[in-house]
Every structure is written in C-alpha cells, then in structure tokens.
Write a structure and sequence with these properties.
Number of helices: 3
Number of strands: 10
Distance between the termini: 132 Å
Order of helices and strands: EEEEHHHEEEEEE
Radius of gyration: 44 Å
Structural class: alpha+beta
Strand content: 15-25%
Largest sheet: 3 strands, antiparallel
Length: 183
Amino acid sequence: MIGKKGKDAEVEVELDESIQLDENGDEVVAEPEVDPLQAAQAEIAELKDKLLRTHAEMDNLRKRTQREIADAHKFGVEKFATSLLDVMDNLERALAVEEGNEAAFREGVQLTLNSWHEMMSRFEVKRIDAVGEPFDPHHHEALSQMPSAEPTGTVIAQHVAGYTLHGRLIRPAKVLVSSGPAA
C-alpha cells in the first residue's frame, strides 16, 4: 500500500498485483491459460466439420458433372438434328411436286442437296472427293484396282464419297485405283 497525505485525511491506494506493465508503461493484459487438450479437441472438431463439408461439396460436384455429361450425350446433336429437319422438309416438298413436272422435281432435289451440303459444312462435316487424287489409305478404301492410262496408285473412280468431321475421318471414300497402263 502506498500512503498519501492530503489535507486532513490519509488516502490509501492498493496496487493490483495482477496488472503488469510493459516497458512503455502500458498495461499488459494476460490471456487466460487454455488447456492444450481442449484446444486440440476444438481444432479437431473444426477440421472434421471442414472435411465433411468438403466431402459433401465434392459429392455434389461429381453428381452434377455426371448429370451434365448425360445431358450432353442426350442433347449434343440437337442443333444438328434441327438442321436436318430443314433438309427433310425440302425432300417432302420435292415429293409433293405433281407427276410429269420432272424439271421442278429435279430442281427441288438439287436445292435440297445444296441445303444438305451447306448444313454439313456448318457442322464441319467435309466431303472427300478422291477422283484424280493419289490413293491415300488414311482417307480412301480401295475396292479394287484396274488398268488405266492414269499413273499407278491414282484414284480413277469413286463409288461412295468419304467424310471427315472436324478433320477426323468418319467414313473413307470407297474408290477404284489405277494399277497403271495395261501391259
């Protein structure tokens, strides 16, 4: 205790011994001691909660991704199918042409074929025309060989056109290949 003398009375001030001061004279508040076992158990509980939440989020992500993949498989050709409907409508119009009007029928079929080629090019389906080209086993399927005036290995006829989709072969052109001049 520190005593102070005033006018006629003595005032006693008690210093709290639990208050500590730092080097600047500021009060230092001591944190209450935490039981290390309780702190570890609290941290474990928090980490378990985070782990469970992460597992739930990953499970939801997996399920959502599976649904999106299934939808992509189901509806991935929707634009292509819609474009095919236009070609089908043109074919039905061509069949509706009156008998005896073959010129109109041919014109309708030609317009339909043109719309078919235009639609296929929109979807990066490219036709392989092989006549006059050197035989390429990556794009052509040789049905047979026959002698011709063309050099050996040149495609001289095409039975069926080949097609690629975005550069990948989806059907080879079925061709007849020259075996060179007849001997």
